[in-house]
Amino acid sequence: MQKKNTIFFIAGIVFAAGIVGMMSVRAGNNAVDCSLDFYTAIDIYPVDETMMSAGYEKVTENNWHCVLNNLDVYVTYDYENRICCKNNYYFRLEDLYIKDEKTYLSKNMLEEILTSEISRENNKIVVTEKDYSDFDWTSSPVITHAGGAVREKGELWYYTNSKDALIQNYSLGCRLFEFDMYPTNDDNLAIVHDWTQFGRLDGTYLSAEEWLNFKTGTSNVSDGKYETMLIGTLMDEMQINQDLFVITDTKSTEFSQEVIRRQFEIIYREAAARDLKLLNRVIPQIYNKEMYDIVQSVYKFPNLIFTCYATEEPGEEIVEFCIAHEEFKAVTAPFSEERLTQTDIARLHQHELKLYFHTIYSYAELAEAFKNGADGVYSGIFTPDEVGIYLDAAERMNKENLTE
Known about the structure:
Layout: H1 2-22, E1 24-26, E2 31-33, H2 36-42, E3 44-46, H3 47-53, E4 57-60, E5 63-68, E6 71-78, E7 83-86, E8 89-92, E9 97-99, E10 102-106, H4 107-114, E11 116-121, E12 124-129, E13 142-144, E14 150-152, E15 155-157, H5 163-171, E16 176-180, E17 182-183, E18 189-190, H6 208-212, E19 215-216, E20 226-227, H7 231-240, E21 245-249, H8 257-272, E22 282-286, H9 289-298, E23 304-307, H10 315-324, E24 328-334, H11 342-350, E25 354-360, H12 363-371, E26 376-379, H13 384-403
Parallel strand pairs: 13-26, 16-21, 21-22, 22-23, 23-24, 24-25, 25-26
Antiparallel strand pairs: 1-2, 3-10, 4-5, 5-6, 6-7, 7-8, 9-10, 11-12, 14-15, 17-18, 19-20
Helix pairs in contact: 8-9, 10-11
């Protein structure tokens, strides 16, 4: 027995020595120098070859360019600071490796940056477009409200619905966004909450061009500094980031059925001018049964979410309506909603529908939301990673309490 243990001990030393021989840590950039066999084993890819396979052209060292859906896309790798920038969207580079002055990244990291699928076929790197149409967007515990807050030193700017908010929150890991949308005076949709608290602050409808030339901020602020968007601008960003999903808040309770229909005709028009597959990642927020018929008559959106605040129907009727229409994947309700009973919530879950509460601004509200049966929340400040950490901690605490 002692001899057998000795053999295992020696074998362990030899194995460890082999691993040490394969790997050496470079203290300067925390990269690891490994054998190519090791690269294959842990599924990492050379950055330059992968970028070329994805159709990018190398402009300068570590700077790449391609034309994607008629849009210029620029990607820059900053290996020293372990950051990648794609059209101002930032990605933190994990699993960075170097071999013979060649840089490698993990498959998952490159797929996230390129929103593509990467594989090896006959010793060649193959990059193909990834179809997010069937992605389960309800797996996100956070719907980033109004594009998310813009974080600046010492302050948070809510409700900007700005491109700045989108870029910052996407870079923080958010992928499921809710944006407010309001008509312009020239048959377009501005990404804005309304024209009373934003724009000229007097209810005047701006034109598409006027809004794009405007700088927005938070509610009731006329001297904003953030970049505005139209629905087409937002769809361009969705083409750059194929994993970006958008929930529409079209304020439809404020408009006639004719205007509601026109809002979604504009959404369809802008998608058709680019790629109709974009509509698989546009999720209309439905306010009542009548709106459902109007929206789906324009285009049969495969994903819908029902919001409770704009209807007085009982919770049970809302639940049954959503169950009866397979396009609904989730229901959202105010944080203080009392119409949805625990029985209603259980029935939603029985039919694999998710429940989101809105709008959450604190950990106390976050805890209460999940305690009351929420699967996720609308929030301008919490990211999916932050909520995930909270949920993991809560689950561990519950398990510990059960074992006591």
